[in-house]
């Protein structure tokens, strides 16, 4: 069986070449197409009547609360003012946060300095107490060595003979610390 149907009309090749030569795409960048907005398309009206879609369009700022389309080109000035107000509000908030951080830092630094001052005072108090304690110990040792030396000098046994018996140095030209040192050395050597 043979295919029976209409015969397809074909144009000659030279006619097709002539049509193709008239088709040029050089000026596409210069041609401005009409802008399409689906919000104004009557064929999309059924889609945009949906409550969820309208809620989304309202939240994104494409329609107002009455369902009218907001023309962004006409409201560019208002949008620019709003954007500047938001930027200014953000700058003010950043400055407030920066001031708050700086205040916290100052308060923490003040607390730290106070704690450091108290710690240094405690260390100084402890050092003074230790110094007083060591002075008391030295005074006690001096008084005990002086009393033992004076009692041994008075003793008739004569265990300690006199200042010349301590060595070639005489006790007369010495400071009290040197004398006590000599007495302590002699007592450790068994001189007492």
State the low-pLDDT regions, or none. 158-169
The helix tally amounts to 5
Termini, distance in Å? 151 Å
What percent of residues adopt helix (DSSP H or I)?
A: 55-70%
Biggest beta-sheet profile: none
Number of strands: 0
- CA radius of gyration is 55 Å
Strand content: under 5%
Structural category is mainly alpha
Principal-axis shape: rod-shaped
Order of helices and strands: HHHHH
Give average pLDDT, whole number.
Answer: 79
Summarize the structure.
The chain is mainly α. The chain is 60% helix and 0% strand.
List keywords for this structure.
192 residues, mainly alpha, 60% helix
Write the layout of secondary structure elements.
Elements: H1 13-21, H2 45-48, H3 51-59, H4 76-154, H5 176-189
What does this structure look like?
- The chain has helices at 13-21, 45-48, 51-59, 76-154, 176-189.
- It has a domain at 36-70.
- The protein contains 5 helices and no strands.
- With 192 residues, the protein is an all-alpha fold.
- Helices cover 60% and strands 0% of the residues.
- It starts with 12 loop residues before the first helix and ends with a helix.
């Amino acid at each position: 069986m043979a295919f029976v149907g209409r015969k397809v009309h074909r144009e000659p090749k030279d006619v097709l070449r002539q049509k193709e030569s008239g088709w040029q795409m050089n000026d596409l960048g210069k041609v401005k197409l009409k802008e399409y907005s689906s919000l104004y398309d009557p064929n999309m009206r059924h889609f945009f009547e949906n409550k969820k879609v309208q809620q989304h369009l309202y939240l994104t700022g494409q329609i107002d609360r009455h369902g009218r389309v907001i023309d962004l080109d006409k409201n560019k000035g208002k949008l620019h003012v709003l954007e500047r107000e938001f930027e200014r509000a953000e700058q003010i908030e950043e400055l407030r946060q920066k001031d708050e951080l700086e205040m916290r830092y100052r308060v923490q630094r003040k607390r730290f300095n106070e704690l450091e001052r108290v710690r240094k005072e405690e260390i100084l108090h402890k050092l003074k107490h230790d110094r007083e304690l060591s002075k008391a110990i030295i005074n006690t040792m001096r008084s005990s060595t002086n009393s033992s030396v004076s009692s041994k000098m008075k003793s008739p046994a004569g265990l300690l003979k006199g200042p010349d018996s301590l060595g070639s140095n005489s006790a007369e030209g010495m400071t009290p610390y040197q004398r006590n040192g000599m007495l302590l050395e002699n007592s450790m050597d068994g001189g007492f």
